[in-house]
Request: fold
Amino acid sequence: MKTQLTIACLCLMIVSLMLTEQSSALIDEQFIAGIWLLDEGTGKVAMDSSENGNNGELIGDPKWVAGKFGKGLEFDGKDDMVDTPYVSEEQQSAFTILAWIQPSIAISTQIVVAGRSNGGPQLNLNGSGKAMTGFKMDNGQFAHVPGTTTFPKGKWTHAAGTYDGSVIKVYVDGVEEGTLKPSNPPGKNAYTVQIGAFDERLHGGGYVGQFAPAAIDEVAVFNIALTAKELNTIITQGLYRAAMSVSLSGKLTSTWGNIKANGR
Reply:
């Protein structure tokens, strides 16, 4: 009887801990466009660990390396990238785009790009090696805001860009480094998520952006502007722990199961 009571108490404790973790979700699943942990360590596919199934194809020959959390991908800056099937034709009213970046050289590179022509959010390193984020407005002009920190060679540094429908912000290691109030909203056009470069040729266009000579880890795009506090939780805990626990809903069990299967 004592053994049965002990087991029952342990079960209640486990369930309580699970519910506590699940109810304190950082990001609701409806706002997740894609999460690429880049933890596979082998193969030619970068799994999308959300329910959306936007698994990326490795183009060229990116190398699996040790990442900031688990594994990551190293891009040669010549022809390596990850191309995902994620497509949105909705006008962006808000977004967050983020990644860990470890440059191999100091150069202007397009690290993570969600956008083929108009509207999609972008996260780059500019010609000074500083983080830059923004989008192409509906008038055809770009609205970009740079940070102030030069990303050091060989060191993992976190970059994030957010837009809340009014102001664009760029963060480095969880610290806000620049803001911009764009004159116009994002353009309304289809966009995809590409990691390590920007190559429209894969989707019927002609523009090819600069390829990233860098290692990249834990890439995510959300259709909501995260706060500095939320970004710092992701930086400290990693995407798997911080953002992968979706909020309580009817899909909780299946969603968490899929994430566990596709994640760590």
Observations:
- The chain has one domain: 26-262.
- The domain at 26-262 is CATH 2.60.120.200 (Jelly Rolls).
